[in-house]
């Protein structure tokens, strides 16, 4: 059977796609990897409604730099940068090195695959129909200039006994064209009936 490759990993170093963790290590690789997982989970859990698209972590010898891409940067920064200071202190305790936190705004949140998938999961957790959530996301995405989008929901949709997959696709989505700039994201919605997986592919352009 044919397998679907993660489009972002498939296009690394093409269309300005890079790793979300930018550093190298020898003996302490495992420790640094666990630190990265902690940083991402802490930021995503602390700012669930801040519209976080991605968290990029860069390391030098004595500095850990965390770049947060968010559609609502003001929520993360807080009053006079108070929330950013809290993030720095929390991460510095775990990492045991000096920490720098930068918050970058996402201009077009409607065509960001991560933000679309998170928006759909929030709606599913509020018991909104998956079809309605998917169609609304597709309409908003195409209005903002995306050339194509595909949204897929898998699980016990609508509380059904048997799990199934539903998906909608609009426009072009050339997954085999390497120069095509395709954004991809996966998110889990924790509903009463179980976990529903949400996948989003967005074709931005070549």
From TrEMBL:
BP term (GO), one: translation
Keyword Acyltransferase: no
Record-annotated KH type-2 domain positions: 39-107
A GO CC annotation given for this chain: cytosolic small ribosomal subunit
Gene3D superfamilies in alphabetical order: 3.30.300.20, Ribosomal protein S3, C-terminal domain
An MF annotation (GO) of this entry: rRNA binding
Function, in words: Binds the lower part of the 30S subunit head. Binds mRNA in the 70S ribosome, positioning it for translation.
Subunit structure: Part of the 30S ribosomal subunit. Forms a tight complex with proteins S10 and S14.
PANTHER family hit by this protein: 30S/40S RIBOSOMAL PROTEIN S3, SMALL RIBOSOMAL SUBUNIT PROTEIN US3C
Protein family per UniProt: Belongs to the universal ribosomal protein uS3 family.
Name of this protein: Small ribosomal subunit protein uS3
Species annotation: Wolbachia endosymbiont of Aleurodicus floccissimus
């Amino acid at each position: 059977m044919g397998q679907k490759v993660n489009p972002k990993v498939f296009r690394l170093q093409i269309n300005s796609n890079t790793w979300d963790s930018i550093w190298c290590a020898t003996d302490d690789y495992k420790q640094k990897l666990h630190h990265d997982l902690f940083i991402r989970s802490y930021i995503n859990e602390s700012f669930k409604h801040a519209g976080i698209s991605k968290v990029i972590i860069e390391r030098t010898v004595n500095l850990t730099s965390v770049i947060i891409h968010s559609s609502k940067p003001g929520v993360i920064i807080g009053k006079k940068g108070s929330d950013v200071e809290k993030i720095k202190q929390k991460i510095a305790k775990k990492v045991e090195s000096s920490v720098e936190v930068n918050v970058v705004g996402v201009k077009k949140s409607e065509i960001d695959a991560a933000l679309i998938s998170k928006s759909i999961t929030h709606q599913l957790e509020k018991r909104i129909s998956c079809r309605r959530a998917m169609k609304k996301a597709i309409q908003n995405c195409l209005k903002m200039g995306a050339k194509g989008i595909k949204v897929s929901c898998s699980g016990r949709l609508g509380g059904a006994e048997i799990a199934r997959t539903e998906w909608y696709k609009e426009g072009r989505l050339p997954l085999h064209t390497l120069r095509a700039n395709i954004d991809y994201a996966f998110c889990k919605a924790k509903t009463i009936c179980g976990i529903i997986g949400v996948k989003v592919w967005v074709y931005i352009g070549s």
